[in-house]
Amino acid sequence: MEAEAAKMFGVGLAALGLIGSALGLGMIGSGAMNALGRNPEASGPIGSNMILALAFTEAIGIYGLVTAILLIFVA
Amino acid sequence: MRKLVIMGVAAALALTGIALGAVGAAMAGRDPFVPLPEVHIAPAAIFHIGGFAVTNSLLSAWLTCLVVVALFGLGTRRMALVPGRLQAFLEMLIEFLYGFIRNVAGEKYARRFFPILATIFIFVAFNAWMALLPIYPTVGFKPEGAEHVTTHLLRSAGTDINMPLALAIISFLFVEIWGFKAHKLGYMREFIRPGGIQTFVGILELLSHFIRLVSFTFRLFGNMLAGELVLFMMTYLLVFLSPVVFYFLELLVGGVQALIFMGLTVVFAASAVAEHGGHHDEEHAEAAAH
Questions:
Q1: ipTM higher than 0.90?
Q2: What is the rounded CA–CA span in Å between residue B153 and residue B164?
Q3: What is the pLDDT of residues A12-68, one digit of tens each?
Q4: Contact B127/A at CB under 8 A
Q5: Which of A70, B230, B253, B258 is most buried by its number of CB atoms within 10 A?
Q6: CB distance B41–A69 less than 8 Å?
Q7: What is the pTM of this model?
Q8: How many angstroms separate the CA atoms of B106 and B98, rounded?
């Protein structure tokens, strides 16, 4: 049971990494909205660049998520 | 009046679902009617051809290919100047994808990049969307004496790490091929840079190309797997109606992930074929400073 408890702690810690990703996503969204408010004509390039930045940021969170899922179901 | 009836039925369904699911079961202190979903990270082999295991995720990838080919064949069989509904939908999709690629890569390279990138988008998106169909989690094989289906006939290919890895390798190879095509052997100047800190920058650049493989793979795999898990867990917790919200979310995620896979590939490809103006500018700036 001790090992199981340690594993679950590990799962929680791995999932905590999502906080950083979530903060980053929020900041990117807010930055893009700010830019859109100032310059609505540039919605095309802002949108595609925002999606790009979102993808990079999200990937980091996904690493933590994959670690957590693998810990629960495989390890 | 009709609206009221519909809302009443929906509320009743949602409440029954909550009562039947694990949430209600925990509140009432009994076992839930719905079994806890069993999670397999590795896909299950359905049958073997020689020594080659055909897994359920591979079957679903083939099914996706068939459906996409059939859809496009049907939509473009009788092409008209004033398009029908299916043809209009396909034209919209293609125009959207082409516009996206042209915005990033420019008119010159968009035509060269378009076929492989659009294929990646369409395959990933349709694969994710088709996995939301009810046949995916229900149809399968039940071993003797078991209560539920344990081996599914179909499983979203994105939830099997091999498919994202294969797509990532394809995207990586095409980016490098396009880079070599545009600059011939001069493309290697990106990685082998003479002198001091520049050598290190070149090595980092080379490393970053391989790290893309990992990030491409795990981004798609993680998103698809997490989506599938969320759907199953929500169905386990709140049986009826409430999981529909998450089905909508997954519809969105499938499209966005496909767009991201395609978008990142086109950005990398565009930077691989771009003229290395920045490098020369740096040298000029250095010369000017001396």
A1: no
A2: 20
A3: 998 898 999 999 999 999 999 999 999 988 887 888 788 878 888 888 888 888 888
A4: no
A5: B258
A6: yes
A7: 0.83
A8: 10
Residues counted in chain A:
75
Token couple for B57: 């995720």
Is residue B253 a contact partner of residue B128, using CB atoms and an 8 Å limit?
yes
Residues of B in contact with A62 (CB under 8 A): 218-219, 222-223, 226
Are B87 and B80 a contacting pair, CB within 8 Å? Answer: yes
Q: What is the pLDDT of residues B159-210, one digit of tens each?
A: 888 899 999 999 999 999 998 888 888 888 878 888 788 888 888 888 888 8
- Residues whose CB falls within 8 Å of the CB of residue B149, separated by 6 or more in sequence, listed in order: B138, B139, B140, B141, B142
Interface test with B, best of A11, A21, A49, A52 (most B CBs within 10 A): A52
A22 touches chain B (CB under 8 A): no
